[in-house]
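agent> Task received from the user: take the single chain below, predict its 3D structure, and emit structure tokens. No templates, no multimer pairing.
agent> Plan: (1) validate residues, (2) run structure prediction, (3) serialize to tokens, (4) report one or two observations.
agent> Step 1 OK, no nonstandard residues flagged.
tool_call: predict_structure(input=
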Amino acid sequence: MDSKHSYRREFLAKGLWATAGLLALGPLKAAFAENYPASKAEPDLLARVNRAKDPENLQGVEVGHVPQIKSPRTVKAGEPFEVEVMVGQKLHEMIPVHYIDWIDLYAGELFLTKIILTPHLTQPVFKTMVVLKTSAVLRAVEHCNIHGLWEGSKQVEVV
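)
tool_result: status=success, residues=159
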């Protein structure tokens, strides 16, 4: 058999395997949607950065997703202070099918740091030291693999 026919046979075989793989995704997608209806019931969660409607009274999916920032309310200019970020009032689960990928921390629009997380092996909590020269809103943005982007914030005054 010449190489032209061999190449054609290999191409067709790979195409059949690829088609079979794509067909198998349909039932998997349906099973995922059935087991995690929040993503189907609230598709707008995935189209925006989500924030608590009332940060003092979290409701529903907000309880496990809005980042909580712990830091002093006032700090001295140029002096380091500790900031702790925790995802959710009730700590977000970290299982293979539902987890937090990463958390970013900003001072206003200025990026400060990022933590990348691994299901089962890490928890969506971290501490870091920050130095501010002027007052700023600390913003934590996190990504849930099912419920999308969430943001929490806290004003810090520099004296």
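agent> Step 4: summary for the user.
The longest helix spans residues 3-35.
agent> Done.
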